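Intended use. Records such as the Alpha/beta hydrolase entry shown here are meant for training and evaluating sequence-to-structure methods. They are not intended to support clinical decisions.
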Amino acid sequence: MCLDSLDELSIESMRQRSYDSVLKPLKKIDYRRTQHTYMMAYNSDGQALYSRLDFPASTVPASGFPLVVLAPGWISRKQAVDWDFGLDGKSTYSLVVDSFVEAGYAVVTVGYRGRGTIHGTPAQGMAYRDVWGNGSYVSPLFYAIDTLNLLAGLDSLAKIHWKQWLPTTGAKPKFDLNKVSLWGHSQGGDVGLTVLAVVGKNATFGQYVFAASIWSGNIADRFTQVETFEAMATTTEAFMSGDGTWTGSATGRNGELNPDFVFPWPADWIGTLDTESEDWTWQAEQWSTTSVFEARKRKYREMYNTFNQYVANLGDADFHIFRNDRDKTVVEHPASIAQVIPKLGGFHYANYITAPLSLHISDRDYYSLPVWNQDLAKRVNQAGGKARVYLYPGNTHSLKLSTYDWFSPENAEPGAPLATARDIQLFSSASFGD
């Protein structure tokens, strides 16, 4: 859990590592008659972890089932211990897995370190989450390592003695390792983008990634995530105008400017944007931080406390936060931090991303700002790769419609079904649909 240097988690360092695992069935799940579902074991950096495997209960193609490796998003520590890998049949992941299987794909859902309990035994690695799953925003890099180890072990699926795990009439499955695609959502988008940079241009990684899709990805660098997510989740100043009311911009009704405005749209479950409304009750506590300045100061303090305690070469690194002459919050970082943060994660490594990449986003999701996705796609395309942004107006973080009409207008359409159809097209041909 302790690092000699943050550079150990840089893209260049991760590209030089070796990866491997062996996937083994642990438990057959009675989920749907049209597919076979198993809980699997695999190993990542000495941690005994879990994953979920689904494939169609139909004729096995001559070349084998194409594979989708699914990188899920953030869940709380409490949820992680008993996470069901989407087996409730109601989550976004359930719907996505089922859609891919119905289209003829096998799907491996990655269980990161600390996620899931099978036969009464929790997945190992929760200590990593306890250390890094906070304001450091470093945990997705460890989850990317887990995903890379799992990807490297996909060839072990062919060595499983399937007869004991299948119905008497079931045919032994075969998997097409030439068509392995990657799908990630939210924090899983951060994971997925890191993976793509590691396995991309001129990489020595053995398993080819055919195509990739990221939904509502937390794709920006660590500093940008800190400065966006905490403020939007804890202070109204992040999304209110200069006069303290919501106008959809930094500018108030009489021209007052909010210099620390972040983004117009908080999560739809806030319920109302009118702080004077009788519906504004519990929200007052949730968004009780007085300013963006205070929100960023608090979260950066978390980050630096973690770095100083668990990264050997940093000593007592500290940041400087202040308001400039325009009253805008500014944060200055020491070189020991500022130089390495851009090296963590795939956002600044568009030149390495060779797998065709779809980026599916809402125009109202602060966890995946349109400008981040458009910037990434532009740089991937300029570097000779292929990337496309699909925008779903009025959608939530899960590419669904909100129950609040102020968030999802009457003419808004749910994005998830169309995004899934587009992914199926991409994963079958490595080309974009409409």
